[in-house]
Design brief:
Beta-galactosidase, Chain A, domain 5; disordered N terminus; globular; alpha+beta; Immunoglobulin-like; 21% strand; 39 strands; 8-stranded antiparallel sheet; 7-stranded antiparallel sheet
């Protein structure tokens, strides 16, 4: 049985400001009386009930699109468009009621927060009274997330990249009650980038201490997509906290495997820290499995383990946790820490009031490093399960399964301690040496208790194991096999294209840069070099065709795909891989050549890899043309190719309805919803529990439109246009333009004109169009009315995000000439004038006009001053502009630091000192170290000795030099994982 989904954004107002450190402990409600008896009987329960949490609210997202595709973020592109970017956090906490879903059984208590990406915020072991996940008792974001705010604590589920784009966005939830007494809280995330669908289900079973996570990642698009999945688990740490990896882990690697060290004893300098030298002064200081030994922000990911578990252990509390997942799917095991030193402690203070510090013990599925992306085919669904459970005082686990964990002490004796995840009456503990049982005992074990056994050490092969009463192995430990002495490989920077010998390597290097979303290296120079040597190379032409298609350059994409097809079919009419046919089908469909597109999709379906994706696209096209029986036959033919694709069930139900078979259609919808209760399209078709998020409704309407159900699409477009604007962006104008396009197809031209007028009159705040459907809709709007300034402005934003920046600049200038006066438009055009057309005077003129329209907008003031810096305006000029609006300047950390720097340079150091001493600053991504540098410069200008910066600056001096992000010659390091500048102002060549 499944309850109705709930839409997550809270409507409860923020509470009154709190006194410092008031109400810092989260108080969890007791289970409702109606569920208490069920819990007392040993079953698992779940319910929804708000939780009051001390909260520092994130600021309103920016009204300006952020084009940060060259920002280095976690080693890959920090592109955030079309998500609105949030740049501020309140310094004044309030007591806020957060929507919460509670799960509980006799052993474990969990809290899931749907308004924060569906994260598990609390994991509490009732048997030991221990929070096995770090319980942060405040919601205190820092600006380190991909789209701005990010909080520490609990488990953050990261996809399709790290940190999750939607980590601070709401998810929809539903509670599912299983026939076995389990409860599952399903959380549905509609990926704001590619519009893929992810569902994660947090599950508790009766009689078990295991936290089970069932995940369903679905590519609901027609294109192949890349993704990664990292579950980011936080653990509260101190001097006696130890992370543990399997015993076959002898090396760990940095991001992108750019560096390596031995584990657990670091045998070389790592992140600028000479661990062997530290160990000479203090034995054991090279053990990087202990938080206390790591003085700098540090990541490390295991290399080449064949085991399925890892975790963390609190020696002071005598408790910890284990993560377990099948290694064939989940090879990724990682630790991150801010570091046990003043620099890290300052970051801890930014993220909590009284809790922390913490480490992150991350588990990667389909990935073992960051960045490390794999593929999802169109229509493909990947499913997997991860498990966590608390352990009592056994020590760090040396082997673990979902049933039990064991710690083994080795010396003159073998001593093993076991813990289980469900009651095991009559469990058998034993030690086997040389094939013979040398020690054995039977004990009744329950979660939270420890059972131990001991035997004399032996030179014979030793095995320690725990069996259930029936003789089934629950966990088995034996010494890890000694690996090779050869060190694992370390990544190197690819040579320049001219230094690469073969076309194949040129193609593969470009593919790597594209697949891993490299932020500062383009694949195009490698692919162009490949085609200079072999213009007909199929792989390279196909790769560029795909890139052109995703940028909306359909004619160019078609030409490349035809070249690839010619090479592939020159001798083999049936290529081994039919991707070229699928891509041709997509391109031809966008070009309006529907019959040819259907032929291409049909041919792609000969290949099992593409049969499901191309088959659905073909069935959808046939449906649009009213060919019901043909569409149903195609759907029937692909059902056995790939199991789960909710799109197929929805399309089949629509076709059955059109055929008048309503009963069959309803049965189809009900069955599909039982398996996929939060699928948006199915819920709309069910006419109950429908989504309320405007962006999700817009995507459902597109699916209905593409299947030929125009009236249904119009209804859902209207609902999207009328829905509240969600934090993920505003689709109101686009929904009206989309309705206009559908109405024109129906020859309802007056209604179409009305919809275009509504689009022009829509609220445009945070309206950031994204995707090829939006591009085609806006292109059609301009074809209908070339004087539509709003359409020019919106399509300019989209084209700029696609890299078609000269075209974007022309659209923005056209919108301005048509009379549209909007600060977002003016600012966008100014960016393009500086970056793309290199017209500095025009850029300055446009910024001045934008500031005149919005003189109290601190973002505009900041960007205008950054442009002034690049245009070599003097210190005096910049101060003259900023000083009269000092209060506005001090609203932003970055602008305040710029202002302080100018004050010092302008001989006004006392004013700079007053600001730095009294204003609270937050470290921001891109500004690390700048507040400290301003402090030092201010003291020097005042003739005062250097001192430690005040706590109000929010940061301290780094003790060690981190891996370089940018070299002295200005070149960004190939392996940089973080880079300061937002890169809003960066000259670019013409596209």
């Amino acid at each position: 049985m499944t309850s109705a989904p709930t839409t997550s954004p809270s409507t409860s107002p923020a509470g009154a400001a709190l006194a410092p450190h008031a109400h810092t402990r989260i108080v969890l409600p007791d289970a409702p009386a109606a569920l208490r008896a069920t819990l007392d009987e040993g079953a698992a329960i779940a319910w929804e009930e708000p939780v009051a949490i001390r909260t520092y609210e994130a600021g309103e997202p920016s009204e300006y699109p952020m084009y940060l595709d060259h920002r280095v973020y976690q080693g890959s592109s920090g592109k955030v468009y079309p998500i609105p970017f949030t740049e501020s956090v309140s310094d004044v906490p309030v007591l806020r009621e957060w929507q919460a879903v509670h799960l509980e059984n006799e052993f474990v208590r969990l809290v899931v927060l749907p308004e924060l990406g569906g994260r598990i915020h609390i994991g509490f072991d009732k048997t030991t009274g221990y929070d096995f996940f770090y319980r942060n008792n405040v919601i205190k974001p820092a600006l380190v997330g991909l789209a701005g705010p990010w909080i520490s604590g609990g488990i953050e589920f990261n996809w399709p990249q790290h940190h999750r784009p939607a980590t601070y966005l709401p998810v929809e939830t539903a509670i599912e009650h299983g026939d076995d007494g389990s409860v599952t809280v399903w959380c549905h995330d509609h990926d704001p980038f590619a519009r893929m669908s992810a569902q994660h289900g947090v599950r508790l079973r009766p009689g078990s201490s295991v936290v089970e996570l069932a995940v369903r990642l679905h590519n609901r698009t027609d294109e192949r997509q890349t993704f990664l999945w990292w579950a980011n688990v936080a653990a509260r740490v101190h001097d006696d906290y130890q992370s543990f990896f399997p015993e076959d882990v002898h090396y760990v690697a940095d991001h992108a495997r750019r560096a390596l060290t031995a584990f657990p004893e670091a045998d070389r300098a790592y992140y600028g820290v000479d661990y062997p030298a530290l160990a000479e002064q203090k034995p054991g200081a090279d053990r990087i499995d202990w938080y206390r030994n790591i003085p700098v922000p540090t990541s490390y990911m295991i290399v080449d383990s064949q085991q399925d578990f890892f975790g963390g252990y609190d020696h002071a509390a005598g408790a910890g946790f284990v993560h377990w997942a099948e290694r064939r799917l989940s090879p990724g095991k990682k630790q991150w820490t801010w570091g046990d030193a003043p620099f890290g402690h300052a970051w801890d203070a930014q993220l909590t009031d009284e809790d922390g510090p913490y480490v992150e013990l991350m588990a990667g599925v389909y990935t073992d490093n960051q960045p490390d992306f794999t593929w999802l085919l169109p229509g493909e669904t990947k499913t997997f399960t991860q498990y966590w459970y608390p352990i009592p005082a056994i020590g760090p686990a040396h082997q673990a399964t979902p049933d039990a964990a064991v710690h083994v002490e080795r010396g003159d004796a073998i001593a093993a301690s076991f813990a289980v995840t469900r009651p095991q009456p009559g469990a058998i503990l034993r030690v086997v040496q040389g094939g013979e049982v040398v020690a054995s005992r039977s004990v009744d074990l329950v979660p939270g208790n420890v059972a131990s056994i001991e035997a004399a050490a032996s030179e014979s092969a030793t095995v320690v194991e725990l069996l259930d009463a029936g003789g089934r192995t629950l966990v088995r430990w034996e010494p890890a096999r000694q690996g090779t002495d050869e060190e694992p490989w370390v990544a190197d920077e690819p040579p320049l294209p001219e230094a690469i010998d073969t076309v194949e390597e040129l193609y593969l290097t470009g593919l790597h840069l594209s697949q891993y979303r490299h932020p500062t290296r383009s694949p195009l120079p490698y692919w162009h070099a490949a085609l200079e040597r072999d213009p007909g190379d199929a792989r390279t032409n196909l790769a560029i065709a795909d890139r052109d298609y995703r940028a909306g350059r359909y004619e160019e994409a078609h030409a490349r795909a035809v070249v690839a097809l010619a090479r592939l079919t020159r001798r083999n009419a049936q290529p081994q891989d039919a991707e070229v046919f699928h891509l041709l089908g997509l391109i031809l469909r966008r070009l309006g050549r529907r019959t040819e597109a259907e032929q291409a999709f049909g041919k792609a379906g000969w290949d099992g890899t593409w049969a499901a994706g191309s088959g659905f696209a073909l069935a959808q096209s046939l449906s649009e043309r009213g060919r019901n029986r043909s569409a149903l036959r195609v759907l029937d033919s692909i059902d056995g190719v790939v199991g789960h694709d909710a799109r197929r069930a929805a399309l089949r139900a629509l076709l059955l309805r059109r055929d008048g078979r309503e009963t069959e259609a309803r049965a189809m919808i009900d069955a599909a919803l039982a398996a996929d209760p939060l699928d948006a399209t199915l819920r709309v078709l069910a006419s109950e529990r429908a989504p309320e998020d405007a962006g999700i409704l817009f995507d459902v309407a597109l699916e209905l439109r593409d299947a030929g159900f125009a009236e249904d699409a119009l209804d859902v477009f209207a609902r999207a246009a009328a829905a509240p604007i969600p934090p993920s962006g505003n689709v109101r104008a686009l929904a009206h333009y989309a309705s206009a396009a559908v109405l024109e197809e129906l020859a309802r031209f007056e209604d179409a004109a009305t919809e275009r007028a509504r689009a022009r009159g829509s609220e445009l705040i945070r309206a950031f169009p994204n995707g090829l459907d939006a591009l085609d809709i806006l292109t059609g709007a301009l074809a209908a009315d070339e004087t539509d300034a709003v359409a020019h402005s919106l399509i300019g934003m989209l084209l700029y995000s696609l890299g078609r920046r000269n075209e974007a600049a022309r659209h923005w200038e056209r919108a301005i000439k048509l009379g549209l006066r909007d600060r977002v438009l003016l600012r966008n055009a100014a960016l393009a004038a500086y970056n793309i057309t290199h017209d500095d005077d025009r850029a300055w003129e446009l910024y001045a006009e934008a500031v005149e329209l919005a003189p109290t907008d601190p973002r505009l003031r900041y960007e205008q001053d950054q442009l002034a810096l690049r245009l070599a305006h003097s210190v005096a000029e910049r101060l003259e502009r900023l000083s009269p609006v000092r209060d506005i300047v001090l609203e932003r950390d970055d602008l305040a630091i710029e202002y302080v720097t100018l004050l010092v340079a302008g001989g006004r150091a006392p004013e700079a000192y007053e600001i730095l001493s009294t204003r609270a600053f937050h470290p921001w991504e891109g500004g690390e170290g700048r507040a400290v540098a301003a402090w030092d410069a201010t003291l020097a200008a005042l003739g005062r000795p250097a001192t430690e910066p005040p706590a109000s600056l929010g940061e301290t001096r780094a003790q060690y030099v981190a891996p370089v992000a940018r070299h002295e010659n200005g070149v960004t390091d190939y392996f940089a994982t973080s880079l300061p500048e937002l890169l809003l102002f960066a000259r670019e060549a013409e596209d």
